[in-house]
Amino acid sequence: MAPNIIPDNLISRLSELVNTKMGLHFPENRWKDLRRNMTGVAQDIARIHKIENNPVICIEWLLTTPLTKAHLDILAKHLTIGETYFFRDKSLFQALRQNIFPELIRLRQKKKCIRIWSAGCSSGEEPYSLAILVDQMIPAHGKDWKVAILATDINATCLEKAEKGVYTKWSFRNTPAWTKEKYFKKRDEKYFEISPALKKMVRFSQLNLVENTYPSEFSHIRDMDIIFCRNVLMYFKPEVREEIIERFFQSLTDRGLLIFSPSESPCVRHSGLCPLYLPGTTFYRKIEAESNVKPEPDPDPNPNPNPNPEPEPVKPVKPDSQPPYLKALTLANIGRLEEAETFCRQAIQQEKLRSEHHYLLATIYHEQNRLRESVKSLTHTIYLDPEFVMAYFLLGNLRQKQGRLTEADKHFRNTRSLLLDMKAEDILPHSEGMAAGNLLKMVQSMISKMA
């Protein structure tokens, strides 16, 4: 066995350690992710403690050393990797703009106070998106309204980036150009900084959701009008998820709203939370504490007194339903490729212009060695999103495998061009947590070998 191959017994002990110390759940079917991410952990630990840069040695060191906050921060940096960008999930932000925020503004008209919590905020794109939306809907909030947006994450590296508020154009994919022009200052050709006014609206803080430290007066985690926690529950065991949802419930004000990602909705089983279905997304409303009867129907979804057009009618959906794309992604991850292909085709049929749907289909074809079909889907992906880094990279690999080296070189060079516009620490979407800097080194090596 090679010295840096992590044996099962060691990765099992590491999984238990991470679960005990951090609450993060890495069952056996996710050991592959844990093994891959330990390369970065080993590099950081080796640099700080002057030990050999080797994942096996690093794990043995972690298992026999009292772990400090600095050690846990390194683990969090590499084991909790978020993929995010501004105004991610158009359905959600449309529902917030048309239904949720108008009602909330009406209800808070006297107090003029709104409290929002982004739990698992990653590098800050979500809370800043919420700040932009608030600014659009309450332009005079600085004078008359008190809007507090709390943003927390376990990953200290992500929080450091979020507090700086500096982003590359990759964070603005699928974001209207006027958003960047109005709310960001261009620092140079690569970087854009969020406006000081919006920075002041968001307070960042490190928090591990498994810890029983909230709700709390001290941390101001209480009486929240809306809590966002998307793509976070998947890191925890079912029993831990229930504890976190209970603490979220206690942290909400009466009739406050809780929002998860669509794939996490089946995890929500709380008698005090009533689902509210809006097109493309599901919210969970806290039932008023003194009410022992069925919750009253939700108010007019467009209570804004302005003569705006009526929003789309609410279409009920099953609480445990999962979008075809997420079903396809889940099935592909466990190797059930034929079923994954079926659901991925359904997702494309529903949303033909979503580049990530076509990319997933391309990866399924690739795993099945259906290279011609994979190339076709990747070409479609790039047509829909000319800045889809991983699509160029996979296309280069496929062309190289087919012996079409000139085309492979072109796609690798396109990949390099996009990566040069990103920060080295930026996490690439649809890459299973790979940083831009790591892929850039790999691509440059491949280009050199082909020269």
Structure description:
With 451 residues, this protein is an alpha/beta fold. It has three domains: 8-79, no CATH class; 90-286, Vaccinia Virus protein VP39 (Rossmann fold); 324-450, Tetratricopeptide repeat domain (Serine Threonine Protein Phosphatase 5, Tetratricopeptide repeat, Alpha Horseshoe), CATH 1.25.40.10. Helices cover 49% and strands 12% of the residues. The protein is built from 18 helices and ten strands. The protein has helices at residues 8-22, 31-49, 55-63, 69-79, 90-107, 125-137, 141-144, 156-164, 177-183, 196-201, 238-251, 324-333, 337-350, 355-367, 371-384, 389-401, 405-419, 436-450, and strands at residues 113-119, 146-153, 166-168, 184-186, 191-194, 202-206, 224-228, 252-259, 273-278, 281-286. Helix 2 (31-49) packs across helix 4 (69-79), helix 13 runs antiparallel to helix 14 (355-367) and helix 17 runs antiparallel to helix 18 (436-450). The protein is globular. Residues 291-321 have low confidence and may be disordered.
Briefly, what is this?
Helices cover 49% and strands 12% of the residues. The protein contains 18 helices and 10 strands.
